[in-house]
Amino acid sequence: MDVINDHEMFETQVMLHLQGNLTDPSCLVSARAGRARLRSRGREIHHEAFSQAFPPQMLETAMHMRDDALAKLSRFADLPATLTMQGMIRERSVPHVARYRQAFAGFWGSLKIEGHWDSIFGTNPDGEPVFRRGPWEAWPVDLPEFGEVNPRYPIILSPYCATLFHESVGHALEDDYLQGSPLKFYRGEKVSNTKLTIQDRPDLPGYAGSMTHDDVGWPLTDTTLIHQGFLVGDLSSKRGAHRRDSYRDAPLVRATNFMIRGGDENPATWLSSLERCYYVSWIQSGNWRPGGERFKVLTGPIFEVHRGKVVAKRSWVSLRFSIGGFLGSIAAVGRDMTMDPVVHWCVKKNQRVPMSMGSPSLLLEDWS
To answer: Is the full-model pTM beyond 0.90?
Structure first.
């Protein structure tokens, strides 16, 4: 990590965890407030953390957000639905930094209704609930299960699968992982489909990773990592992007809002024209071991489709890819770029930071 300026960072955060029926769910609250003081002496970092009294008005705001969220979901109250929901209000500041803004407020979760696929939702920047949408909503739940994934079948990824790129590209291009990264030697070279462009976008307003400055007060702008299939950038410490789980943690270079730009193809034609393929509704989680060539993800519901007709499903599948093989397997990029309404948590060195992701549908061929 490059030397960073001496600074103080102030934080307040409240998290809500709701579970149960929509009319009267249980609610657990966790809150923290404090400040971090960091001093650099050469490449030696001295970090101190101090807790502070939590502002009661912020807790009141969180309770209002909870009530507002439940009111907006009340149209489902007559259904036998089980709610799992989280809410977060997060504010940070670095004194003496002009026009600093780093704040987020929102909720996200799922509704489980017997006989239906889970309904996953989150808030948009205006605070309105938005649900993940896709063709699986019209497919029956009682489909037979298929066996092992056939590597000869193409895979269609819904717009809620950007975790694949966060693991394969985002982490592998972070400053402290670059030296051992399998992408290190491909700067300026073509690594994927010419329709693929990947960016880190802290400048987008209202999302979980949106900020004008990072946690040490450095200004942030968008960074293009892959441009039209060519590897052109990285998440280096020289551009900022220092983030930390809480005021108690030392800053690490991280992504903010991870975005894949839309292409020019209609994903509906892939479903109807492919003889056999798999359709992945969303990715639940992913993991890349620093320095490794391979990464893995855990899917949500995945379906086997024959010329537009769904014939079988699995509730989840673990998929493994090589980074180079995965990027090289992208055959087409859809025109349906969509922001995932769910807040994602990026885990690195036992620190979790929130981020948002957006992606179009993508078609993978020869991916094994």
So the answer is: yes
Q: What is the average pLDDT across 108-137?
A: 94
Tell the residue number behind the tokens 């699986």, with chain if given.
136
Tokens coding 73 = 């979901």
Alpha-carbon torsion, ordered 171, 172, 178, 184, to 10 deg: -160
Q: How far apart are the C-alpha atoms of 235 and 334, rounded to whole Å?
A: 26
List 198's β-bridge partners, or say none: 226, 260
Q: Among 330, 337, 158, 314, which residue's Cα sits nearest to residue 260?
A: 337
Amino acid identity, residue 40?
A: S
Q: Would you say 157 and 280 are in contact if contact means Cβ atoms under 8 Å apart?
A: yes
Main-chain phi, psi angles of 212, to 5 degrees: -85, -30
Residues with Cβ within 8 Å of residue 368, at least 6 apart in sequence: 151, 152, 325
How many other β-carbons are positioned within 10 Å of the β-carbon of residue 137? 12
Report pLDDT digits (tens) over 164-223. Answer: 999 999 999 998 898 889 998 899 999 999 999 999 999 999 999 999 988 888 888 899
Let me know the angle formed at the C-alpha of 289 by 285 and 292, rounded to the nearest 5 degrees. Answer: 125
Give the residue extent of every domain in the chain. 7-132, 155-364
